[in-house]
């Protein structure tokens, strides 16, 4: 078992499952600068850890995440004297780079090789919607709600919600949420397909999330990686392109060993046992 504490997260790895927990309940788990930096480094660590086969992302306190800490958008321009401030084009380009960086952190939830299950209680607001829509599976407790908060503070969401949410729920409903900033509660979220299941309590939800994670972790990690890669690619491409990618993936990474083990275990009425993936070191890490 591995346990690590960060400023904004706790990371616990056991039995091939990584539990990534937002751990600033007193601050409503808002997305501060530390949050973004830590999220990026933790996801990179998870992706390189061959022992991890699935992630459960959960939270602490009343709300899952109250969204962006607006201080994270600060780029120092406001501290420059008026007579020395850059022109609007240069300020705009700086903000563009900030948005691209934040988009990259969220997109890493899709890019890592293992599925991510989001377990949501209370409010999932603003940037938190960007985050959970990049996860593979979403579960929620019955009091949970989702809100595209950006319109309520005079801006358009820009870190992934507008791109991913219309591919999860009906476009008309998504646009209504984006234009009004209204809350979508868990029952409506389940009906719309935003979440897979709804639970009476947070405790029951976490139990359900970890039960689901355990089932996923019991499967071939190569096959799970292939499923995630192909489904993500197919979502954003034509059927023809998706089929081509699927065929190339199968030709390159179909594991005869895992197939034999899965079939044999089924015939022998036992749990299958699959090898972990191979650890990959950073180029700047020592090979010793």
TrEMBL record:
GO molecular function terms listed in the Swiss-Prot or TrEMBL record: isomerase activity
GO BP term (any one): fatty acid beta-oxidation
Annotated PROSITE patterns: ENOYL_COA_HYDRATASE
Family: Belongs to the enoyl-CoA hydratase/isomerase family.
Protein's pathway: Lipid metabolism; fatty acid beta-oxidation
Organism of this sequence: SAR86 cluster bacterium
Keyword tags: Acetylation, Fatty acid metabolism, Isomerase, Lipid metabolism, Peroxisome
GO CC terms, sorted: cytoplasm
Domain of life: Bacteria
Entry annotated with the keyword Acetylation: yes
This protein's name: Crotonase/enoyl-CoA hydratase family protein
Gene3D superfamilies named in the record: 2-enoyl-CoA Hydratase, Chain A, domain 1 (3.90.226.10), Lyase 2-enoyl-coa Hydratase, Chain A, domain 2 (1.10.12.10)
Location of the protein in the cell: Peroxisome
InterPro entries: ClpP/crotonase-like_dom_sf, Ech1-like, Enoyl-CoA_hyd/isom_CS, Enoyl-CoA_hydra/iso, Enoyl-CoA_hydra_C
Principal localisation: other
Family matches, as CDD domains: crotonase-like
């Amino acid at each position: 078992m591995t346990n690590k504490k960060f400023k904004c997260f706790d990371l616990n790895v056991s039995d091939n499952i990584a539990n990534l927990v937002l751990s600033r309940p007193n601050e409503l788990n808002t997305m501060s600068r530390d949050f973004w930096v830590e999220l990026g480094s933790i996801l990179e660590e998870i992706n390189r850890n061959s022992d991890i086969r699935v992630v459960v992302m959960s939270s602490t306190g009343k709300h899952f995440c109250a969204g962006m800490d607006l201080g994270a958008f600060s780029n120092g321009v406001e501290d420059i004297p008026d007579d020395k401030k850059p022109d609007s084009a240069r300020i705009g380009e700086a903000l563009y780079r900030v948005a691209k960086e934040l988009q990259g952190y969220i997109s890493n939830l899709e890019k890592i090789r293992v599925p991510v299950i989001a377990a949501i209680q209370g409010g999932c607001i603003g940037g938190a919607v960007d985050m959970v829509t990049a996860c593979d599976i979403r579960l929620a407790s019955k009091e949970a709600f989702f809100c595209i908060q950006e319109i309520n503070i005079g801006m358009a969401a820009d870190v992934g919600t507008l791109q991913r949410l219309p591919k999860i729920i009906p476009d008309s409903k998504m646009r209504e949420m984006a234009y009004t900033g209204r809350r979508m509660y868990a029952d409506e979220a389940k009906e719309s397909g935003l979440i897979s299941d709804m639970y009476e309590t947070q405790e029951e939800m976490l139990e359900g999330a970890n039960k689901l994670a355990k089932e996923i972790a019991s499967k071939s990690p190569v096959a799970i990686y292939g499923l995630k890669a192909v489904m993500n690619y197919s979502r954003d491409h034509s059927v023809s392109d998706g089929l081509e990618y699927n065929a190339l993936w199968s030709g390159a990474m179909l594991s005869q060993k895992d197939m034999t083990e899965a079939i044999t275990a089924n015939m022998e009425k036992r749990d299958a046992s699959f090898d972990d993936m191979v650890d990959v070191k950073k180029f700047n890490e020592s090979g010793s």
